[in-house]
Amino acid sequence: SREFRPSLRHIEMLNELGIPAEPLDAGACRALEPGLGEKGPLAGGVHLTRDGVGNCRQFAQQLRERLGARPGVQLRFSTAVLGVGRADGRIQVEHAPNGPTGVSQPPQQTEHDALVVCAGASAPLLLRTLGWRLPLMPVHGYSITFRLQAHGMAPRSAVVDARAGVAIARQGGRIRVTGGFALGGRGVP
Questions:
Q1: From the CA atom positions of the chain, what is the Rg in Å?
Q2: C-alpha–C-alpha distance, residues 60 and 65, integer Å
Q3: What pLDDT digit, counting tens, does each position of 45-68 carry?
Q4: Residues 91/113, Cβ–Cβ less than 8 Å
Q5: For the chain, which terminal residue's Cβ has fewer other Cβ atoms within 10 angstroms, N or C?
Q6: How far, in Å, CA of 150 to CA of 132, rounded?
Q7: What span, in angstroms and rounded, lies between the C-alpha atoms of 60 and 9?
Q8: Model pTM?
């Protein structure tokens, strides 16, 4: 159909990039994903055969646990990083930890062999002093997660409605619905 033609161009581009993608007609979409139901308009779909769904919060928690258990690793939370520099092959970090009342304590400087920066869209500004130029722009998305009912109809995999800009992804016993995003800025307060 006419609505599906732009997806065919995207499939070609994905395949050229080494990302396996194949076009599906409406019947094949419903056979692959029964959660789409039997009724309603559906032009077709794109099946990303090696695609997956991740839980960012769970990933970060597991990363924290694994790194925290390694010798020599220091994790600092509730700490404002004021600057990053380099001297004699070591990384210098100026930071101000929050005290028990949430008030920043006097700045401290520490030296490290390596540094993992988890600063999101603030990373380019923070790492500019090292001469790094990171081409990052914040993307603020909107999502809601629901607990699935025992016998509820829900997709088994990720489903994206490109026209509406909505994605539905199953994550174990939950389902996450995302839609809409804003580029740049600081997001919605």
A1: 22
A2: 9
A3: 888 888 777 777 888 899 999 998
A4: yes
A5: C
A6: 50
A7: 35
A8: 0.56
